[in-house]
Amino acid sequence: MDFSFSDEQRMVQDSMRAFARAELLPKYTHWDRNDEFPREQWLKMGALGVLGLRVPVDQGGQEADCVTAGLVIEEIARGDFNCCYGILNSCFAGDILGKFASPAVKDTWLPAMASGETVLCVCLTEPHCGSDAAAIRTQAVRRGDSYVLNGEKSGVTLLMVGDAAIVFAKTDPAAGAKGVSAFLVPLDRPGITRHPYSDMGARGIVRGSLFLEDVEVPAGNLIGPENGGFSRVMQTFDYTRALIGLMCLGAAQATVEETVDYLKQRQAFGRPLSTNQGVSFPLAEWSAKMEMARWFCYRTLWLRDQGLPHTRESAMCKMQVPVIAADAVHDCLILHGHYGYTKDFPVEQRLRDVIGQEIADGTPHIMKIIVARDLFGRDFV
């Protein structure tokens, strides 16, 4: 067993930590306070190659392994949690488009996404179905050399600033999950309407609902074979869930470190607060839990890099790690006293931001079903 990162991976980790501290952290709260998309940060990340981690080299990407992607997203989260969504979306899009899209689609969209100049969204969830992705109602009907799409997508990350979207739609409504296809849809097409959300946290990712009314796209924008979209998205979730775990841990780790510094400086009864075991022990416990969670996430990504099964492991990551991170941040907020409840410190924003990832890419309840099916077999759960 080898628990070490390569020299190259450690260089990536160190450079990303320095970048996050110097360039991202100082403006982390700005985007939340102003409900503003961090465009300038996107371009900086693009220049560093952060948005092309899973994009093929021929399309301007890094084609990095999944463990390296995990290292990057964890370090970026230490600076600005919102910027991690650019990595999540670009890893998803890089894998899906890089493997299954036509050369024309790849050449048009992937280099611009990798540079940060173009923002791509992923549109799967619908108002009536989040966890039951196979139950989507959006349809795509073939008409000559085009497909015509109709339907509604909800909870779309980066929608309000998106240039294009990977939209999942039914091309064979009677076939259930086997009748789902994926399309690259430019968001300036006639028939597209967007509605913004006012979210509790992660306000910089400007989520919203997408409405498609007779939206026409070329048949060449079909990603992969018709009726082959569902299995691809499920396979991609198998590693983005581990990335989400590391993203949450990065934010929690930064909060724990800030809280340690705060407690060493604050005085109570003539001595630093940190000298009280009731104060120091919770942080010791969270540090242990976070370290165990971190290595499990990296093991899951390592399994994917090795081409080994990891569906159960990714579900475990998603089921447990965001909860661990959110609870750790919550305790840190309490340890800041009434200051933690103000906007003078970033801890309250991190709590709001991290909680959202308990829902994204499948709730804990769905993750438990996946794990239970692996334990008992599908016929018994």
Question: Would you write up a description of this structure?
Answer:
- The chain has 381 residues and is an alpha+beta fold.
- The chain folds into three domains: 7-118, Butyryl-Coa Dehydrogenase, subunit A, domain 1 (Orthogonal Bundle); 122-227, Butyryl-CoA Dehydrogenase, subunit A, domain 2 (Beta Barrel); 230-380, Butyryl-CoA Dehydrogenase, subunit A, domain 3.
- Helices cover 50% and strands 15% of the residues.
- The protein has helices at 7-24, 28-34, 39-48, 66-79, 84-100, 103-115, 229-265, 277-305, 311-335, 347-355, 364-376; strands at 120-123, 139-143, 146-156, 164-170, 180-186, 192-196, 208-218, 222-223, 267-268, 271-272.
- The longest helix has 37 residues, at 229-265.
- The model has no long low-confidence stretch (mean pLDDT 93).
Identify the notable features of this structure and list them briefly.
3 domains, 381 residues, Butyryl-CoA Dehydrogenase, subunit A, domain 2, Butyryl-Coa Dehydrogenase, subunit A, domain 1, alpha+beta
Can you describe this structure in just a few lines?
This protein is α+β, with helices and mostly antiparallel strands and 381 residues long. It has 11 helices and 10 strands.
Note the beta-strand portion. 5-15%
CATH superfamily of the largest domain: Butyryl-CoA Dehydrogenase, subunit A, domain 3
Shape: globular
Which runs of at least 5 residues are low in confidence (pLDDT < 50)? Answer: none
Number of strands: 10
Q: Structural class of the secondary structure composition?
A: alpha+beta
Binned, the helix content reads: 40-55%
CATH architecture of the largest domain: Up-down Bundle
CATH topology type of the largest domain: Butyryl-CoA Dehydrogenase, subunit A, domain 3
Outline the biggest β-sheet.
4 strands, mixed
What is the CATH domain class of the largest domain?
Mainly Alpha
In angstroms, what is the radius of gyration? 21 Å
Provide the succession of SSEs.
Answer: HHHHHHEEEEEEEEHEEHHHH
Q: Mean pLDDT, as a whole number?
A: 93
